[in-house]
Amino acid sequence: MNLSVVIVNYQTFEMTKNTINSILEHSYPFSYEIIVVDNASSDDSLSRLQEYFKDKVKFIASSENNGFAAGNNQALRQVNSDYVLLLNSDTIVWENTLENIYAYMENHEDVGACGCRVRLEDGQLDKACKRSFPNVKNSFFRLFHIPTNSKDDNYNLTDLADDGIYEIDCLTGAFMFMRKSALDEVGLLDETFFMYGEDIDLCYRIKQGGWKIVYYGESSITHLKGASSKKQKNKLIYEFYRAMYIYYKKHHAKESFFLTNIVVYVGIAVLCILKLFLNLFKK
Fold this sequence. Notes:
Helices cover 38% and strands 20% of the residues.
């Protein structure tokens, strides 16, 4: 098998169906399989997907929802393909995207993971698709919306062309096309992260393992993310800031000054509380 596409479903029948169909409607010059992991959905989305796709898709039914990383790992432990694609259930894959990135990976054996240009529903770039690794300085500029002319502090790499092809630090978990041998070396997703942050952590470990991570901006998917103005579930807000804490503690705390760590931890907590408070007033 050349490629295993892994999709985690949680009560999103219509979106997951559309994501899968955006793959199945095209033909490819390589063999592939689609594996859907259902994260203990409490609705009938799993049974409906099984009925709709029948023998075209493999399904794994989780008995409990232990998070996005854990859901993906259930499939990753079973695959035996050359490449693995982690794909969000709220995406639409454009024609030629998979074959273009597959060909690029075949021709660049030092690349451990590759992402594409991720567009939001309105056509704008999903900035998470090409990033630097977060650190204290660039996170400070980003969280407080402070402009900077320094390339070293440009977390979202806005100075680089959206349609270019170049090496970066971090991809988005919505679309991560990975070499299975690289994944075998660095390990699976860290299940300490329930949601958010697991993609940054995995990219960090891939680069630590000596592999390159590439942004392939000539090919695209659409990511149907919810608008930022919509009211969010408090659980998701909490997990977002919890992921910041986990990532910082895992990769930066040991090399940072004690007082710096205290400031970072307090800052994350304050931002989380503020976000939860402001969320009360959103519709």
